[in-house]
Amino acid sequence: LCAGSSDAGEAYLRSIFSGMPQDIARTASGCLFQLFSATHQHLRHDEYTFSMLMPDDDIPIIERAEAFSDWCSGFVNSLAMTGVVLHDEQEFEHEWQHVLSTISEFTRLDYDAMQTSEIEEKALFEITEYTRLGVLAIFDSLEQERGDTGTPTTH
């Protein structure tokens, strides 16, 4: 979604559903398309309504932190599939590149070392919110770079 490449998304879905019975693949594909459409609308909404699919707050913090780290990994890897990648020694031309680098760091979150405490809860909330707003900034920046062409820019 952020990179604007529907071809990579379609290829990814085909790989997920290969070997599945056709009726199950069709149902699952329909659900993912609805999620895709709703997420796209939230990313484009002026009120910043986009939210990441995360476990509820009543789930233990270690599980929520692991889910957050996995979400970040999926986000970074999905952008890489479309050609939006950062190189380790690269100087960032755009603010969104710095944000993406930070989100990439969250993929290595040491969630096993987390303990249930108010400080840990606040820290997880803050990095999750940073990531949510960062995704919105990345989406907006890449959309502006693409213009109306829908073609992703490689960095």
Explain what the structure shows.
It is globular and about 45 Å long. The model is unreliable at 148-155 (pLDDT under 50). Helix content is 63%, strand content 0%. The longest helix is centred in the C-terminal third of the chain and has 29 residues, at 118-146. The protein is mainly α and 155 residues long.
What string, H for helix and E for strand, traces the elements in order? HHHHH
Q: Ranges with pLDDT <50 over ≥5 residues?
A: 148-155
Q: What amount of the residues lies in strands?
A: under 5%
Structural class: mainly alpha
Distance between the termini: 17 Å
Shape: globular
Radius of gyration: 17 Å
Oligomer: single chain
- Count of helical segments? 5
Mean pLDDT: 82
Largest sheet data? none
Q: Work out the number of β strands.
A: 0
- Measured as a percent range, the helix fraction is 55-70%
Q: Brief overview, please?
A:
With 155 residues, this protein is mainly α.
List keywords for this structure.
63% helix; mainly alpha; 155 residues; 5 helices; 0% strand; disordered C terminus
Topology:
Blueprint: H1 6-17, H2 22-44, H3 61-81, H4 95-106, H5 118-146
